[in-house]
Amino acid sequence: MAEDEQVQEKVQVQESEQGMENLDGIQQAAVFLMSVGEEEASGILKHLGPKEVQSLGEAMATMTNVGKDKAAGVLQSFNAIVGGQTALGMGSEDYLRNVLNKALGKDKAGGVIDRILLGRQSKGLEALKWMEPRSIAEVIRLEHPQIIAIVLSYLEADQAGMVLANLPENSRADIMMRIASLDSIQPAALYELDEILEKQFAGHEGSISPSSVGGIKTAADILNFVDGTSEAAIMESIKNVDEDLGQEIEDSMFVFDNLSAVDDRGIQALLREVSSDILIVALKGADEDVKEKILKNMSKRAAEMLRDDLEASGPVKLSEVEDAQREILSVARRMAEAGDIQLGSGGDEYV
Fold first, then answer.
1. Taking the chain, what is the end-to-end CA distance rounded to the nearest angstrom?
2. pLDDT tens digits, one per residue of 46-99
3. How many C-alpha atoms does 265 have within 13 Å on its Cβ side?
4. Half-sphere exposure of 140 (CA within 13 A, CB side)
5. Which residue from 30, 61, 210, 286 has the highest number of Cβ atoms inside 10 Å of its Cβ?
6. 261: buried, middle or exposed (CB in 10 Å: 19+, 13-18, 0-12)?
C-alpha cells in the first residue's frame, strides 16, 4: 500500500513537472503569487525590493492563460521545496528571494503591485529606487555634480546607468570621475541629503547609518549599463583629464566579450537563465571567442540549432544587440552576486 502511494506521488510529481516545463523561474514565481491570493501575495511582495517587484509584476501582467496543470505543477514544486527546508530557513528574506528569483524589467502589474508600492514607506534616498530613471534625472539634474554622484552611487548599477543617460551629456564624465573618486560619506552629509530628498517624497522619520559608496568598481558597474556610444565618449573625456583613473575604471569593467573568460560551469549556469531569443540577438555582435565559448557549452543539437538561427536571422540594429548583451550581463552579475558564477574582469580582478 505504501509502495503504491509512493508510485502515485512520483507520477503526480512527474506530471506536474511536465505541466510547468515551459515556465522559467520568474514565471513560476508569478504563477505561485497569483495562485495564493491577493492578500498573501501582497504579504510576500512587501519583503522584496523594487527590481524583484517589477520583475514579478511584469510576469503577472503578461501571463493571462495559465492552465490548471501548470498552476498545480508550480504549487507542488514549491511545496516540495518547502518540505526540504528547516524551520530556520523558512523565515529568512534570503529564502524568499531565492524562491521568487531576481530579474530586471518594468513594472506593468495591476492592483496587487500598486498596493505594495502605495503602502510602502520609504525615505528620500530609498524612494528613488522606486522611480523611473527619467524622473530621477529630472529631480537631481540641477543639483551639484557631487550630489548627483552620491545619488547614483546609492542606486543599483543598472538603474544608475539609465539615470546617467538622461542627464546632460556634458556633465556625465565629471559625474563618473566623482563617483570613481568617492570612498565613503559621513553620516551627517548623507542624512542632510536624505532630508532634502525626503521633502519631495512622503516618508517617515528614522536614522541614517554610515555608508560606503562610490569608488572605481561603482563607476565601472554603472558604465556597464550605459550605451556603447555614450560609454566611449565618457571614457574618452575621463582619460583626457586623468588617464590613470580612466584606465582603472576601464580595467574594472566587465563587458560582454569578457564572457569568454568565464569558466565552463559558469557559462552553463548562465545559459540556463537566458532565453534563446535574447542569446541569438546578443551573439550577432559578439566576438568569435565568445560565440565559441557559448557553443561549446551547449549540447551538440542545441549548438547546431543556435548556429542555424544565427545564420538565418537577418540584420539586427546595434542598439538591439547592445540591449540583449546588457540583459545577459545583468543576469550574469546577479548570479555572480549570489555566488553562483564567477566573472573575470580586468585580468585577475573579479566582480
1. 54
2. 777 766 777 777 777 666 666 666 767 766 776 665 555 444 444 333 433 444
3. 5
4. 32
5. 30
6. middle
For residues 109-121, give the mean pLDDT: 35
Nearest Cα to Cα of residue 223 among 180, 275, 283: 180
Mean pLDDT for 132-140 is: 86
Summarize pLDDT for 7-38 with one digit per residue, the tens.
444 444 444 444 455 677 777 777 777 777 76
Average pLDDT of span 325-334: 85
| pTM for this model (two decimals) | 0.43
**How far apart are the C-alpha atoms of 80 and 99, rounded to whole Å?**
12
Residue type, 286: A
Structural domain boundaries in the chain = 2-119, 124-252, 256-350
Beta bridge partners of 185: 211
CATH topology of domain 256-350: Annexin V; domain 1 (1.10.220)
> Is 256-350 in the same CATH topology as 124-252?
yes
Grid coordinates representing 208 are: 541614517
CATH level 3 topology of 124-252: Annexin V; domain 1 (1.10.220)
CA distance 212 to 192: 16
